[in-house]
Design brief:
disordered N terminus, 4-stranded antiparallel β-sheet, 18 strands, single chain
């Protein structure tokens, strides 16, 4: 299996078994290896929603990346679509995405107006306008300077003020920052060499980072 899917599936299964970090309320869980699961983590229990699309039940979405919409529901990114899933399991297609080999990860802006997609297969960062479904490319690795090119962008998170994206660059072994307003890319951690060293900036080393989360105050990133 693809290593990205395998790592995320393992983490999802472990989280589903243990219940993770306490009483935070509804948390979506996506198993990227065997079958998708959308549920609420409450005291270690997972509830599976019966997904129903606009044109009838959806038997399978395939592997998917899941992110909160900050309003009690979720955005789901598959290999070729961005979907919105309500708390009741109602599925609505927000936008078509360029079809890739593996599922994409996504993060919604704090005001809910846009969703940012880490396109793993195309090595790009995309922006989707929620109101219209318009898709634009915020960072195009084919046109970017070599230092700003992604190699399999995997995990993605957005700053609390919505001004910056943070991306786990799987194949470059780095953590990147992308300015939402301009698409400018900087490396905030990672030497570009495989390793597991702690450190500041390029003194730190990662081995194929696949996921990340940002603290509520935006002061720290947590990288898988």
């Amino acid at each position: 299996p693809n290593p990205l899917c395998w790592c995320m599936a393992s983490a999802a299964r472990k989280r589903a078994r243990t219940g993770g970090g306490g009483d935070e309320g509804p948390v979506p869980v996506a198993d990227g290896f065997e079958a998708p699961i959308f549920g609420a983590r409450v005291v270690g229990q997972v509830t599976t929603l019966a997904l129903e699309g606009e044109d009838g039940p959806l038997a399978s979405l395939g592997s998917a990346g899941v992110a909160s919409d900050h309003a009690g529901a979720w955005y789901v990114a598959t290999k070729d679509s961005l979907l919105h899933v309500s708390a009741a399991g109602r599925v609505r297609r927000v936008a078509a995405l360029p079809e890739g080999e593996v599922f994409n990860r996504n993060a919604a802006s704090p005001d809910g107006s846009a969703v940012f997609v880490a396109d793993y297969s195309s090595h790009d960062i995309r922006r989707v306008e929620v109101a219209t479904g318009e898709v634009t490319t915020l960072v195009d690795s084919l046109d970017a300077d070599e230092a700003a090119q992604f190699d399999g962008p995997a995990g993605i998170a957005i700053s609390p003020d919505g001004s910056a994206l943070f991306v786990a660059d799987f194949g470059n072994y780095k953590i990147r920052r992308v300015e939402v307003a301009t698409g400018a890319v900087t490396t905030i951690a990672g030497s570009g060499e495989v390793g597991d060293a702690d450190g500041v900036g390029n003194a730190a080393e990662f081995t194929e980072p696949v996921g990340l989360a940002i603290s509520a105050d935006g002061s720290a990133l947590f990288v898988a």
